[in-house]
Amino acid sequence: MIFDTIAAKTTADGSSAINVIRVSGSDSFNIVNSVFKGPNLLKQKSHTVHYGHIQDKNNIIDEVMVSIYKSPKTFTREDVVEISCHGGNFIADEILKLLIAHGARMAQNGEFTKRAYLNGRLDLTEAESIMDLVNAKSHKQLQLANNQLKGDVKRLVDELQERILNIIANIEVNIDYPEYDDVLEMTNEILIPNIDILLNEIEQIIKESETGKLIRDGIKTVIVGKPNVGKSTLLNTLLKEDRAIVTDISGTTRDLIEADLNLDGVILKLIDTAGIRITKDVIENIGIHKTKKAIESADLILLVLNQSEELKDLDKELLELTKNKERIILGNKMDLGKKINLDNESIINISAKNKEGIEELSKAVKKLFIDEKILNSDRALLSNIRHIGKFKEVKQALLDAKKASINQIPIDFVEIDLRKAWANLGEITGQSSNEDLLDHLFSKFCLGK
Ligand code: GDP
């Protein structure tokens, strides 16, 4: 596809040693060449770097290195030029203005990646993974994003589409050429086990995606406990150990602080209820209300008890409040002795102050949420909520197909549900139009008699 030529700074705002401006489109060489004093870029080999100056008429703006990449072996599959100029917003903005004056257009957010997709360089899942790659905060997140960029999710989807297509094609042949003996017979009875195999696999993939989603997005975790049990101390211990990135949620009254904590490769999105204070006298006050809300929305509760003293009413209330959630009970202040015992509940002994027991906590989190078997399996792990949503639609379409088959609905009607499942899968990678389906179908079966 031919698009206009776009330009944007690819490095972040702020001061840095170097900024890179990317220009992509059929006019990119001409545009940059017209403001570049140095070797004639139109005469240079692809994938080479050139020294020179960016000039506005005779005014030098900056001393730069220019990298040129001729289509199609480029990120967007278009002609691409990258100008490495000195850092700072001013220089980059001046160069951008000049490029725009010479015919480029300012790129929108994500437009280079969008072109890479539209020009067939990346499928949708690969394009999406680039964002994950940039945002990764742990090795496991990085691994997940890299696998997706390598095309793991695309391969999984392609393979499932292929298998559904096979069934569709067999139905088509049966409908169009019922008189041929050599055509594989397709009946509801034959369809049902075939759909079942696919369904089982899709269900398994959806189940496994929980792990993927938690790795990608982190585990929303809330620390709760009555005053003085050591919540803040625990938070500080955790944060210091792992150099977590602490971010205030803007727009709130600062009573919720969010921090990303990397616990041995698994990200806990810690919601610290720092500003939420529960007082003994006024249990039904704002504090407990907010705590309840925080508990409801969390994936994981870290309930902190002071194990060196008997359980108080507030402890019991919090135990009750969190009993239906995934929770880990922490018996803090282990250095002061143990006075509590919970029936049928395991407690992890820690000392937040002395930084003891954190390893056990990390193991317990993993045990609750991360299935190592899934992580080490060869199958692609879904983590993107859009992909997971589509898989759920595929599952529904296959369930409909199975139900129709069981009810002895004619197979050409069952085919409608199968086509839907095929199309839902294709929406994940961006290959789902009817034309795509027909192309695939006819490339597989030479029905052109
Ligand atoms: P919060 O109100 O639950 O946030 O409790 P804090 O973190 O402010 O801790 C209350 C008090 O308990 C502070 O004086 C801490 O130093 C102390 N503390 C926290 N953890 C421990 C621990 O593991 N052992 C001992 N001995 N004291 C602790």
From TrEMBL:
Binding site for (6S)-5-formyl-5,6,7,8-tetrahydrofolate: R22, E82, R121, K449
Keywords, in A-Z order: Cytoplasm, GTP-binding, Hydrolase, Magnesium, Metal-binding, Nucleotide-binding, Potassium, tRNA processing
Listed transmembrane segments: none
Residues noted as binding GTP in the record, renumbered to the chain: 228-233, 247-253, 272-275
EC number: 3.6.-.-
Cofactor entry: K(+)
Cofactor note: Binds 1 potassium ion per subunit.
EC top class, as a word: hydrolase
GO MF annotation, one: metal ion binding
Binding positions for Mg(2+) per the UniProt entry: S232, T253
Positions that bind K(+): N228, T247, I249, T252
Start and end residues of each TrmE-type G domain: 218-370
Keyword Transport: no
Matches recorded under PROSITE patterns: G_TRME
Gene Ontology terms: biological process: tRNA methylation; tRNA wobble uridine modification
UniProt GO cellular component terms: cytosol
Annotated family: Belongs to the TRAFAC class TrmE-Era-EngA-EngB-Septin-like GTPase superfamily. TrmE GTPase family.
Assembly and binders: Homodimer. Heterotetramer of two MnmE and two MnmG subunits.
HAMAP family assigned to the protein according to its UniProt record, in alphabetical order: GTPase_MnmE
Name of the protein: tRNA modification GTPase MnmE
Organism for this UniProt entry: Hujiaoplasma nucleasis
Lineage of origin: Bacteria, Bacillati, Mycoplasmatota, Mollicutes, Candidatus Izemoplasmatales
